[in-house]
Write a structure and sequence with these properties.
about 400 residues, alpha/beta, Rossmann fold, 2 domains, six-stranded parallel β-sheet, about 40% helix, binds adenosine-5'-diphosphate, binds magnesium ion
Amino acid sequence: MKHATFADLGVSEVVASELAQRGIAKPFAVQSMVIPDVLAGHDVLAQSPTGSGKTLAFGVPMVERIKDSDARPSALVLAPTRELASQIVDDLRPIAHARALSIAAVYGGAGIVKQARLAGRAHILVATPGRLMDLIERRDVSLKQIRLLVLDEADRMLDMGFRPVVDKIVKMCARERQTLLFSATLQGEVGKVAKAYTSDARRHEHAHSEERKGDVEHRFVTVAHEGKVGRLVAELNEAERGLTLVFVRTKRGADRLVKRLASSRVQAVAMHGDKSQGQRERALANFESGVVDTLVATDVAARGIDVAGITHVINYDIPATRDDYVHRIGRTARAGASGVGVTLVTHEQKRELAGMIGGLGLQRELALGGLAGDRTNGRKGAGQRPGASRRRGRAPARA
Ligand code: ADP
Ligand code: MG
Protein backbone atom coordinates (compact mmCIF):
# COMPACT_ATOMS: atom_id res chain seq x y z
CA MET A 1 0.00 0.00 0.00
CA LYS A 2 0.87 3.66 -0.18
CA HIS A 3 1.88 3.96 3.46
CA ALA A 4 4.21 1.66 5.26
CA THR A 5 3.38 2.51 8.86
CA PHE A 6 0.77 4.23 11.01
CA ALA A 7 3.34 6.91 11.86
CA ASP A 8 3.57 7.75 8.15
CA LEU A 9 -0.16 8.48 8.21
CA GLY A 10 0.31 10.99 11.02
CA VAL A 11 -0.57 8.71 13.93
CA SER A 12 1.14 9.49 17.25
CA GLU A 13 3.90 7.41 18.73
CA VAL A 14 1.82 6.29 21.76
CA VAL A 15 -1.01 5.02 19.62
CA ALA A 16 1.24 3.40 17.02
CA SER A 17 3.20 1.55 19.66
CA GLU A 18 0.03 0.40 21.42
CA LEU A 19 -1.12 -1.08 18.09
CA ALA A 20 2.29 -2.61 17.46
CA GLN A 21 2.01 -4.46 20.76
CA ARG A 22 -1.05 -6.19 19.31
CA GLY A 23 0.85 -7.07 16.15
CA ILE A 24 -0.82 -4.30 14.16
CA ALA A 25 2.05 -2.56 12.42
CA LYS A 26 0.95 -1.90 8.84
CA PRO A 27 -2.26 -0.07 8.04
CA PHE A 28 -4.81 -1.87 5.89
CA ALA A 29 -6.02 -0.17 2.72
CA VAL A 30 -9.12 1.44 4.19
CA GLN A 31 -7.04 2.74 7.08
CA SER A 32 -4.49 4.33 4.74
CA MET A 33 -7.32 6.02 2.89
CA VAL A 34 -9.38 7.23 5.82
CA ILE A 35 -6.95 8.10 8.65
CA PRO A 36 -5.23 11.10 6.98
CA ASP A 37 -8.59 12.63 5.99
CA VAL A 38 -10.00 12.30 9.49
CA LEU A 39 -6.84 13.74 11.04
CA ALA A 40 -7.19 16.67 8.63
CA GLY A 41 -10.73 17.29 9.87
CA HIS A 42 -12.73 16.09 6.87
CA ASP A 43 -16.00 14.25 6.86
CA VAL A 44 -15.59 10.79 5.35
CA LEU A 45 -17.84 8.28 3.60
CA ALA A 46 -16.28 4.86 3.25
CA GLN A 47 -17.48 1.75 1.57
CA SER A 48 -15.41 -1.24 2.49
CA PRO A 49 -16.06 -4.95 3.01
CA THR A 50 -16.27 -6.94 6.21
CA GLY A 51 -12.93 -7.65 7.77
CA SER A 52 -11.11 -4.83 6.02
CA GLY A 53 -10.25 -3.01 9.25
CA LYS A 54 -12.84 -0.27 9.52
CA THR A 55 -12.84 -0.10 13.32
CA LEU A 56 -9.29 1.20 13.47
CA ALA A 57 -9.87 3.33 10.37
CA PHE A 58 -12.15 5.52 12.48
CA GLY A 59 -10.89 4.56 15.94
CA VAL A 60 -7.27 5.58 15.47
CA PRO A 61 -7.88 9.13 14.22
CA MET A 62 -10.73 9.47 16.73
CA VAL A 63 -8.46 8.94 19.72
CA GLU A 64 -5.97 11.32 18.13
CA ARG A 65 -8.51 14.11 17.74
CA ILE A 66 -10.12 13.90 21.18
CA LYS A 67 -8.28 15.28 24.21
CA ASP A 68 -8.51 14.40 27.88
CA SER A 69 -9.79 17.94 28.62
CA ASP A 70 -12.67 17.62 26.12
CA ALA A 71 -16.31 17.22 27.09
CA ARG A 72 -17.64 13.80 28.02
CA PRO A 73 -18.78 12.55 25.65
CA SER A 74 -17.27 14.38 22.71
CA ALA A 75 -17.15 11.44 20.33
CA LEU A 76 -20.00 9.08 19.48
CA VAL A 77 -19.94 5.83 17.52
CA LEU A 78 -23.32 4.41 16.51
CA ALA A 79 -23.41 0.69 15.75
CA PRO A 80 -26.33 -1.57 14.87
CA THR A 81 -25.96 -4.35 17.44
CA ARG A 82 -24.79 -4.83 20.99
CA GLU A 83 -22.18 -7.37 19.90
CA LEU A 84 -20.69 -4.88 17.51
CA ALA A 85 -20.77 -2.06 20.05
CA SER A 86 -18.96 -4.11 22.66
CA GLN A 87 -16.49 -5.42 20.10
CA ILE A 88 -15.65 -1.86 19.03
CA VAL A 89 -15.01 -0.86 22.62
CA ASP A 90 -12.80 -3.90 23.16
CA ASP A 91 -10.83 -3.03 20.02
CA LEU A 92 -10.43 0.66 20.86
CA ARG A 93 -9.98 0.61 24.63
CA PRO A 94 -6.18 0.13 24.58
CA ILE A 95 -5.53 3.05 22.21
CA ALA A 96 -8.05 5.25 24.01
CA HIS A 97 -6.36 4.54 27.33
CA ALA A 98 -2.96 5.21 25.79
CA ARG A 99 -4.26 8.74 25.19
CA ALA A 100 -5.83 8.98 28.66
CA LEU A 101 -9.35 8.86 27.21
CA SER A 102 -12.22 6.86 28.58
CA ILE A 103 -14.55 4.85 26.38
CA ALA A 104 -17.83 3.11 27.17
CA ALA A 105 -20.41 1.03 25.38
CA VAL A 106 -24.15 1.37 25.82
CA TYR A 107 -26.60 -1.14 24.41
CA GLY A 108 -29.92 -2.71 25.24
CA GLY A 109 -30.41 -5.95 27.09
CA ALA A 110 -28.12 -4.97 29.95
CA GLY A 111 -28.73 -2.87 33.08
CA ILE A 112 -29.21 0.78 32.24
CA VAL A 113 -28.08 2.23 35.57
CA LYS A 114 -24.49 1.13 35.36
CA GLN A 115 -24.29 2.07 31.69
CA ALA A 116 -25.68 5.51 32.50
CA ARG A 117 -22.95 6.03 35.07
CA LEU A 118 -20.14 4.95 32.72
CA ALA A 119 -21.62 6.84 29.77
CA GLY A 120 -21.68 10.08 31.73
CA ARG A 121 -17.94 9.81 32.29
CA ALA A 122 -16.72 8.62 28.90
CA HIS A 123 -15.02 10.77 26.28
CA ILE A 124 -15.99 8.25 23.64
CA LEU A 125 -19.39 6.63 23.63
CA VAL A 126 -20.15 3.59 21.50
CA ALA A 127 -23.87 2.99 21.34
CA THR A 128 -26.74 1.19 19.72
CA PRO A 129 -29.35 3.79 18.71
CA GLY A 130 -32.25 2.57 20.86
CA ARG A 131 -30.38 2.46 24.14
CA LEU A 132 -28.69 5.76 23.49
CA MET A 133 -32.10 7.36 22.99
CA ASP A 134 -33.25 5.90 26.33
CA LEU A 135 -30.25 7.44 28.07
CA ILE A 136 -30.87 10.80 26.42
CA GLU A 137 -34.50 10.73 27.47
CA ARG A 138 -33.43 9.94 31.03
CA ARG A 139 -31.04 12.90 30.77
CA ASP A 140 -28.09 10.70 31.58
CA VAL A 141 -26.29 11.70 28.41
CA SER A 142 -26.23 14.84 26.31
CA LEU A 143 -24.95 14.95 22.76
CA LYS A 144 -24.52 18.73 22.58
CA GLN A 145 -20.75 18.46 22.66
CA ILE A 146 -20.35 15.59 20.21
CA ARG A 147 -17.88 16.89 17.66
CA LEU A 148 -16.91 13.57 16.16
CA LEU A 149 -19.70 11.26 15.06
CA VAL A 150 -19.20 7.85 13.48
CA LEU A 151 -21.91 5.69 11.93
CA ASP A 152 -20.58 2.16 11.65
CA GLU A 153 -22.37 -0.35 9.42
CA ALA A 154 -24.79 2.37 8.41
CA ASP A 155 -26.50 0.15 5.83
CA ARG A 156 -27.24 -2.41 8.50
CA MET A 157 -28.62 0.23 10.86
CA LEU A 158 -31.07 1.31 8.17
CA ASP A 159 -31.98 -2.28 7.33
CA MET A 160 -32.82 -2.79 10.99
CA GLY A 161 -35.20 0.16 10.97
CA PHE A 162 -33.11 2.60 12.98
CA ARG A 163 -33.45 5.48 10.54
CA PRO A 164 -35.90 7.60 12.61
CA VAL A 165 -33.86 7.19 15.79
CA VAL A 166 -30.57 7.84 14.04
CA ASP A 167 -32.02 10.99 12.45
CA LYS A 168 -32.95 12.29 15.89
CA ILE A 169 -29.58 11.42 17.35
CA VAL A 170 -27.65 13.10 14.56
CA LYS A 171 -29.70 16.28 14.98
CA MET A 172 -28.76 16.41 18.66
CA CYS A 173 -25.02 16.38 17.97
CA ALA A 174 -23.07 19.62 17.70
CA ARG A 175 -23.52 21.34 14.35
CA GLU A 176 -19.82 22.00 14.09
CA ARG A 177 -18.83 18.40 14.02
CA GLN A 178 -16.97 15.89 11.96
CA THR A 179 -19.00 12.94 10.66
CA LEU A 180 -17.74 9.61 9.37
CA LEU A 181 -19.98 7.01 7.81
CA PHE A 182 -19.00 3.42 7.09
CA SER A 183 -21.16 1.14 5.05
CA ALA A 184 -21.08 -1.90 2.81
CA THR A 185 -22.79 0.21 0.17
CA LEU A 186 -23.18 3.91 -0.45
CA GLN A 187 -26.04 3.50 -2.86
CA GLY A 188 -29.78 3.88 -2.33
CA GLU A 189 -31.03 5.05 1.03
CA VAL A 190 -27.61 4.96 2.67
CA GLY A 191 -26.34 7.34 0.03
CA LYS A 192 -29.11 9.79 0.84
CA VAL A 193 -28.53 9.52 4.55
CA ALA A 194 -24.80 9.96 4.03
CA LYS A 195 -25.38 13.14 2.12
CA ALA A 196 -27.77 14.52 4.70
CA TYR A 197 -25.48 13.84 7.65
CA THR A 198 -22.16 15.02 6.24
CA SER A 199 -20.79 18.05 4.50
CA ASP A 200 -18.20 18.08 1.76
CA ALA A 201 -17.22 14.52 2.64
CA ARG A 202 -14.26 12.68 1.19
CA ARG A 203 -15.50 9.49 -0.35
CA HIS A 204 -13.56 6.23 -0.35
CA GLU A 205 -14.73 3.10 -2.05
CA HIS A 206 -12.71 0.05 -1.70
CA ALA A 207 -14.16 -3.02 -3.27
CA HIS A 208 -11.96 -5.68 -1.84
CA SER A 209 -9.41 -6.37 0.80
CA GLU A 210 -6.93 -8.73 -0.74
CA GLU A 211 -4.49 -8.41 2.13
CA ARG A 212 -7.11 -9.66 4.55
CA LYS A 213 -8.87 -12.56 2.99
CA GLY A 214 -7.60 -16.00 2.39
CA ASP A 215 -9.24 -18.30 -0.08
CA VAL A 216 -12.75 -19.45 0.49
CA GLU A 217 -14.01 -22.67 -0.98
CA HIS A 218 -17.71 -22.35 -1.70
CA ARG A 219 -19.74 -25.54 -1.74
CA PHE A 220 -23.42 -26.03 -2.50
CA VAL A 221 -25.15 -29.19 -1.39
CA THR A 222 -28.60 -30.10 -2.62
CA VAL A 223 -30.66 -31.91 0.01
CA ALA A 224 -34.25 -32.89 0.62
CA HIS A 225 -35.83 -30.79 3.33
CA GLU A 226 -36.00 -33.78 5.72
CA GLY A 227 -32.35 -34.51 5.08
CA LYS A 228 -30.98 -31.19 6.27
CA VAL A 229 -30.15 -32.11 9.85
CA GLY A 230 -28.51 -35.36 8.82
CA ARG A 231 -26.44 -33.61 6.22
CA LEU A 232 -25.40 -30.92 8.69
CA VAL A 233 -24.32 -33.56 11.20
CA ALA A 234 -22.26 -35.22 8.46
CA GLU A 235 -20.59 -31.93 7.61
CA LEU A 236 -19.88 -31.24 11.27
CA ASN A 237 -18.37 -34.66 11.72
CA GLU A 238 -15.86 -34.04 8.94
CA ALA A 239 -12.40 -34.42 10.36
CA GLU A 240 -10.77 -31.24 9.21
CA ARG A 241 -12.60 -28.39 10.78
CA GLY A 242 -12.06 -25.75 13.41
CA LEU A 243 -14.73 -23.42 14.69
CA THR A 244 -17.92 -23.58 12.67
CA LEU A 245 -20.65 -21.00 12.37
CA VAL A 246 -24.05 -22.34 11.29
CA PHE A 247 -26.59 -19.86 9.96
CA VAL A 248 -30.33 -20.20 10.35
CA ARG A 249 -33.08 -17.79 9.48
CA THR A 250 -35.01 -17.54 12.71
CA LYS A 251 -34.40 -17.42 16.43
CA ARG A 252 -36.72 -20.36 17.03
CA GLY A 253 -34.97 -22.25 14.27
CA ALA A 254 -31.66 -21.71 16.03
CA ASP A 255 -32.90 -23.15 19.32
CA ARG A 256 -34.60 -26.05 17.58
CA LEU A 257 -31.49 -26.90 15.61
CA VAL A 258 -29.27 -26.90 18.70
CA LYS A 259 -31.63 -29.43 20.30
CA ARG A 260 -31.71 -31.61 17.21
CA LEU A 261 -27.94 -31.56 17.00
CA ALA A 262 -27.73 -32.54 20.66
CA SER A 263 -29.78 -35.65 19.93
CA SER A 264 -27.19 -36.53 17.27
CA ARG A 265 -24.52 -35.97 19.90
CA VAL A 266 -23.21 -32.78 18.36
CA GLN A 267 -22.74 -30.05 20.91
CA ALA A 268 -23.63 -26.58 19.70
CA VAL A 269 -24.77 -23.28 21.18
CA ALA A 270 -27.30 -20.81 19.83
CA MET A 271 -26.87 -17.09 19.57
CA HIS A 272 -29.75 -14.79 18.78
CA GLY A 273 -31.56 -11.66 19.83
CA ASP A 274 -33.83 -13.28 22.41
CA LYS A 275 -30.92 -14.41 24.53
CA SER A 276 -29.85 -12.17 27.37
CA GLN A 277 -26.60 -10.28 27.06
CA GLY A 278 -25.03 -12.64 29.60
CA GLN A 279 -26.09 -15.70 27.61
CA ARG A 280 -24.75 -14.20 24.42
CA GLU A 281 -21.43 -13.33 25.98
CA ARG A 282 -21.13 -16.81 27.47
CA ALA A 283 -21.98 -18.46 24.17
CA LEU A 284 -19.41 -16.35 22.37
CA ALA A 285 -16.74 -16.97 25.02
CA ASN A 286 -17.31 -20.74 24.85
CA PHE A 287 -17.10 -20.60 21.09
CA GLU A 288 -14.02 -18.39 20.93
CA SER A 289 -12.16 -20.62 23.37
CA GLY A 290 -13.26 -23.73 21.47
CA VAL A 291 -15.15 -25.26 24.42
CA VAL A 292 -18.07 -25.55 22.00
CA ASP A 293 -16.89 -25.51 18.41
CA THR A 294 -20.25 -25.00 16.72
CA LEU A 295 -22.26 -21.80 17.00
CA VAL A 296 -25.75 -21.58 15.51
CA ALA A 297 -26.70 -17.99 14.77
CA THR A 298 -29.17 -15.74 12.99
CA ASP A 299 -27.86 -13.11 10.60
CA VAL A 300 -28.43 -10.25 12.98
CA ALA A 301 -26.84 -12.01 15.96
CA ALA A 302 -23.76 -12.91 13.93
CA ARG A 303 -23.18 -9.30 13.05
CA GLY A 304 -20.00 -8.13 14.67
CA ILE A 305 -18.74 -11.58 15.57
CA ASP A 306 -15.08 -11.43 14.75
CA VAL A 307 -13.64 -14.69 15.92
CA ALA A 308 -10.36 -15.97 14.61
CA GLY A 309 -10.27 -19.63 13.69
CA ILE A 310 -13.67 -20.00 12.04
CA THR A 311 -12.82 -22.53 9.35
CA HIS A 312 -16.36 -23.34 8.25
CA VAL A 313 -19.49 -21.36 7.69
CA ILE A 314 -22.54 -23.49 7.00
CA ASN A 315 -25.74 -22.00 5.66
CA TYR A 316 -28.27 -24.40 7.14
CA ASP A 317 -30.97 -22.08 5.84
CA ILE A 318 -30.17 -20.21 2.66
CA PRO A 319 -29.57 -16.47 3.07
CA ALA A 320 -32.26 -13.96 2.16
CA THR A 321 -30.09 -11.76 -0.04
CA ARG A 322 -26.80 -11.80 -1.83
CA ASP A 323 -25.36 -9.43 0.75
CA ASP A 324 -26.34 -11.80 3.52
CA TYR A 325 -24.52 -14.58 1.65
CA VAL A 326 -21.38 -12.47 1.41
CA HIS A 327 -21.64 -11.41 5.06
CA ARG A 328 -22.15 -14.91 6.31
CA ILE A 329 -19.31 -16.47 4.37
CA GLY A 330 -17.14 -13.47 5.25
CA ARG A 331 -16.99 -14.79 8.82
CA THR A 332 -14.43 -17.36 7.75
CA ALA A 333 -11.07 -16.88 6.07
CA ARG A 334 -10.34 -13.79 8.10
CA ALA A 335 -6.80 -12.48 8.53
CA GLY A 336 -5.62 -14.33 5.45
CA ALA A 337 -6.58 -17.82 6.66
CA SER A 338 -8.54 -20.04 4.32
CA GLY A 339 -12.04 -21.28 4.88
CA VAL A 340 -14.98 -23.26 3.62
CA GLY A 341 -18.51 -22.02 3.03
CA VAL A 342 -21.16 -24.72 2.68
CA THR A 343 -24.73 -23.94 1.69
CA LEU A 344 -27.50 -26.52 2.06
CA VAL A 345 -30.11 -26.02 -0.63
CA THR A 346 -33.40 -27.84 -0.96
CA HIS A 347 -34.60 -28.74 -4.43
CA GLU A 348 -37.27 -26.05 -4.23
CA GLN A 349 -34.67 -23.41 -3.37
CA LYS A 350 -32.16 -24.17 -6.11
CA ARG A 351 -33.46 -21.65 -8.58
CA GLU A 352 -33.93 -18.92 -5.98
CA LEU A 353 -30.40 -19.30 -4.66
CA ALA A 354 -28.77 -19.51 -8.08
CA GLY A 355 -30.57 -16.31 -9.08
CA MET A 356 -29.71 -14.55 -5.88
CA ILE A 357 -25.98 -15.12 -5.88
CA GLY A 358 -25.53 -15.39 -9.64
CA GLY A 359 -23.44 -12.22 -9.66
CA LEU A 360 -20.74 -13.50 -7.34
CA GLY A 361 -18.75 -15.38 -9.92
CA LEU A 362 -19.48 -18.78 -8.43
CA GLN A 363 -20.82 -20.40 -11.61
CA ARG A 364 -18.43 -23.31 -11.39
CA GLU A 365 -19.27 -24.02 -7.75
CA LEU A 366 -22.99 -23.71 -8.40
CA ALA A 367 -22.66 -26.16 -11.27
CA LEU A 368 -20.77 -28.61 -9.07
CA GLY A 369 -23.64 -28.47 -6.61
CA GLY A 370 -26.15 -29.13 -9.36
CA LEU A 371 -27.44 -25.57 -9.33
CA ALA A 372 -26.43 -24.51 -12.82
CA GLY A 373 -28.77 -24.09 -15.75
CA ASP A 374 -31.27 -22.19 -13.67
CA ARG A 375 -29.76 -18.88 -14.46
CA THR A 376 -31.90 -17.87 -17.39
CA ASN A 377 -35.04 -18.24 -15.31
CA GLY A 378 -33.36 -17.18 -12.12
CA ARG A 379 -35.11 -14.46 -10.26
CA LYS A 380 -33.11 -11.81 -8.52
CA GLY A 381 -32.82 -12.33 -4.79
CA ALA A 382 -35.12 -10.45 -2.45
CA GLY A 383 -34.20 -6.79 -2.22
CA GLN A 384 -31.72 -6.97 -5.06
CA ARG A 385 -32.91 -4.66 -7.74
CA PRO A 386 -30.48 -4.70 -10.66
CA GLY A 387 -29.72 -0.98 -10.37
CA ALA A 388 -29.03 -1.34 -6.67
CA SER A 389 -26.64 -4.23 -6.99
CA ARG A 390 -24.02 -3.95 -4.34
CA ARG A 391 -20.40 -4.16 -5.13
CA ARG A 392 -19.09 -5.85 -2.09
CA GLY A 393 -17.60 -9.29 -2.41
CA ARG A 394 -17.86 -9.78 -6.14
CA ALA A 395 -15.18 -12.40 -6.37
CA PRO A 396 -15.39 -15.48 -4.20
CA ALA A 397 -11.97 -15.18 -2.61
CA ARG A 398 -12.82 -11.67 -1.56
CA ALA A 399 -16.23 -12.36 -0.18
P1 ADP B 1 -14.42 -4.47 9.60
O1 ADP B 1 -15.03 -3.53 10.60
O2 ADP B 1 -13.98 -3.76 8.36
O3 ADP B 1 -15.26 -5.66 9.31
P2 ADP B 1 -12.49 -4.89 11.67
O4 ADP B 1 -12.18 -3.48 11.96
O5 ADP B 1 -13.37 -5.60 12.64
O6 ADP B 1 -13.07 -5.05 10.21
O7 ADP B 1 -11.08 -5.66 11.51
C1 ADP B 1 -11.02 -7.03 11.25
C2 ADP B 1 -9.86 -7.66 11.96
O8 ADP B 1 -8.63 -7.17 11.43
C3 ADP B 1 -9.80 -7.37 13.45
O9 ADP B 1 -9.47 -8.58 14.10
C4 ADP B 1 -8.70 -6.37 13.60
O10 ADP B 1 -8.05 -6.46 14.85
C5 ADP B 1 -7.76 -6.75 12.47
N1 ADP B 1 -6.98 -5.60 11.96
C6 ADP B 1 -7.47 -4.39 11.67
N2 ADP B 1 -6.51 -3.59 11.16
C7 ADP B 1 -5.39 -4.33 11.13
C8 ADP B 1 -4.03 -4.07 10.69
N3 ADP B 1 -3.67 -2.88 10.18
N4 ADP B 1 -3.13 -5.07 10.80
C9 ADP B 1 -3.50 -6.28 11.30
N5 ADP B 1 -4.75 -6.59 11.74
C10 ADP B 1 -5.68 -5.63 11.64
MG1 MG C 1 -16.71 -3.29 11.52
